[in-house]
Write a structure and sequence with these properties.
CBS-domain, four-stranded mixed β-sheet, single chain
């Protein structure tokens, strides 16, 4: 994700933090510092970092269960509003989605029990509100443990609210999926989330206004709508193949062309990649970003052979476009589409975004799948061209 830094990698999963997370740390330090001075500032920083460590474990709960069901995980990103595990695929069965969704809150419940054990609280005091108020009144390590206990319970409860994109929305869809299918379950879950979001907005207006509730309600309404559009697009993408969406009129380059020729095509077309062909065979692909980056450091006479890539992944023309999207998300590199030894075209992430947006609008209009067409005439791809 843009604007994020990689912190570390565990179990093959990158953990990244968005730059805006620094504002959360600063806010915690300011809030506690106002009440307790320098000690409060240190407590606020420790509280923010500890809480987001718990959020990271929450996302690892989702991620590890998802991998158990064959879904690849690209990364975990920490944001001011929480964490996000970027899964490269969707559950194929309702039970899988249910287990993936509940794994995160289950981690928070387990952490709450751990912190409660570290507190060594008398069971009689655990339900006494005055005890917790007294414990949290001073910024001590013991208070931090108590604060983390309460906030892990809060995280588990909040995430189980049945509204997308919260885990509770996915739990609701998974349960409905058992009985009415994924498509209808998504519609019901989205409508539920939107009703709840409007309730939050109304609550915020009537009690203040409370801008936190109003903002949260607005965000949930937006996220629920996006989930519905994404689900519709995925259904259509699953019915389209890579060969059906390749551009038969794509502009190409030849090995004798140079950077100036590539830049000229970039200015005249919306293509994100340009196949380099020799005779009837593909020899490589020049990416738009590579050509633009080279423009500031290489001469216009630089041959395209010095810019083109030969190691792009290859997929057959009959591969579902949904799988191509997962491949693009995983590698970040365009995919060469072939039929046997024939080169048909190149699909980039930008291409799939464009197709996804069109697919979502078609699905909203009740069009499940455009009229299919046979793959366009292609060029040969020979083994000597070092394409995998």
């Amino acid at each position: 994700m843009k604007g994020s830094w990689r912190l570390f990698r565990i179990a093959g999963i990158d953990v990244r933090v968005h730059v805006t997370f620094l504002f959360v740390v600063a806010l915690f330090a300011f809030e506690f510092g106002q009440r307790h001075g320098k000690t409060g500032v240190a407590f606020g920083v420790a509280a923010a970092l500890s809480l987001f460590a718990c959020v990271t474990l929450h996302e690892f709960g989702h991620s590890l269960v998802a991998r158990r069901f064959g879904i690849q995980v690209k990364e975990i990103v920490l944001l001011p509003i929480g964490g996000m595990a970027r899964l490269l695929g969707e559950p194929k069965k309702p039970l899988h989605e249910l287990l993936i969704a509940v794994a995160g809150p289950a981690v928070n419940v387990a952490l709450a029990f751990v912190f409660l054990g570290l507190l060594r609280v008398d069971p009689a005091k655990a339900s006494d509100e005055a005890f917790w108020i007294g414990l949290l009144s001073t910024p001590t390590p013991h208070a931090l443990i108590g604060w983390l206990f309460l906030n892990n319970l809060y995280l588990a409860a909040f995430n189980l609210i049945p509204a997308f994109p919260l885990d509770g929305g996915k739990v609701l869809r998974a349960v409905l999926w058992f009985f009415v299918g994924r498509d209808r379950a998504t519609r019901v879950a989205v409508r539920t989330a939107q009703v709840l979001s409007l309730g939050l907005v109304l609550l915020g207006i009537l009690t203040g206004p409370q801008w936190t509730w109003i903002l949260l309600g607005g965000l949930i309404f937006f996220w629920a709508s996006q989930e519905r559009l994404s689900s519709q697009a995925s259904e259509v993408l699953a019915e389209l193949s890579a060969g059906e969406v390749c551009n038969p009129g794509a502009q190409t380059l030849s090995p004798g062309d140079d950077l100036g020729d590539a830049l000229d095509l970039i200015l005249r077309t919306a293509q994100g990649s340009f196949p380099v062909v020799h005779g009837s065979g593909l020899v490589g692909v020049v990416l738009r970003e590579d050509a633009l980056a080279a423009a500031s450091r290489a001469g216009l006479r630089t041959p395209v052979g010095a810019l083109m890539r030969r190691d792009l992944p290859v997929c057959p023309s009959d591969a579902p476009l949904a799988l191509v999207r997962e491949q693009l998300q995983l590698t970040g590199r365009p995919v060469v589409v072939v039929e046997g030894q024939r080169f048909l075209g190149v699909l980039s992430a930008a291409d799939v975004v464009r197709i996804s947006e069109a697919s979502a609008r078609l699905a909203a209009a009740g069009i499940r799948r455009p009229k299919g067409s046979t793959p366009p005439p292609g060029r040969d791809v020979s083994p000597s061209q070092s394409l995998p």
